[in-house]
Amino acid sequence: MPSTSIWRSFSKSSDAFFMYLCYLDESGVPEVPGNSSHFVLAGLAIPVERWREADSRIATVMERYGLENAELHTAWILRKYIEQTRIDRFESLSQNSRRSEVIRLRTAEVYRVRKLGDAKRNSELKKNYKKTEPYIHLTFGERRQLVQEIAQLVGRWNWARLFAECIDKAHFDPVRAQRSIGEQAFEQVISRFEQFLENTEAADRQNFGLLIHDNNQTVAAKHTQLMRHFHSQGTLWTHITRIMETPLFVGSDLTRMVQIADMCAYSLRRYIENGEVDLFEPLFQRADRIRQKVVGVRHFTAATCACQVCAAHRPLS
Ligand SMILES: [Zn+2]
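That is the input. Now the predicted structure with zinc ion docked in place:
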């Protein structure tokens, strides 16, 4: 086991090292026009020593809803499942009966659509059923309550920090920005994470960070290359000296904390696009702040925007 003195020899000025894991995920698509008006990249950073506590608290809530082995995929959980509305007194059935009744209706629908020979509809149906299958034993109200409970739990983690860039695609000019929407979002989020690591250091404390990213083949190669560039050249805003390595890419279906980053990105986009506050308000409490001003989350849009993100990001008067 390395003695403290060996570790100290790596850094003569610091007594303690602190490591933050920053989990990244996105909501909406960076393509223009795409099917969303905004693209959001969010990163939730937690001190490494809090990981076990964070993971097990989420697991406890998931278990209470019979979802201990399921992915927490907010967008699919919050959809309306049409079959549930067609089952008589669905809410009063046992969870097993709810599940078998929904499966019965879905199977019938698969056969019906197959007969029509509509391949596109058939494949949409399959995807929809596969993504929502883990949650069909829960009513819409229970599913809302589940995500709400988790958002409130994360909102109370005063040791976690949220970083995000929310880009209004109608406002974005790639020529002026000299980068794509996806590149700007990534550069902004990692610059803010690096600055947080720098700002919270002290004479006897040195911070480091690691990025853990939802695995997405188109993004993986791009962000790895960008990160190498930032390591050697810095970003437009800062040198990168505390974030180590290129991002580690993991399957979001397996990594609970990436699913929480997904919830953060989703809630920011749904607030900005539709004014939905239920998940946004608890999670936005975790936005990195210096005194009262939010520095970790930005809405990149017209200067006249009056949303809570823009209001909190403006310099204090
Ligand atoms: Zn705004």
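Residues 95-116 form the longest helix (22 residues).
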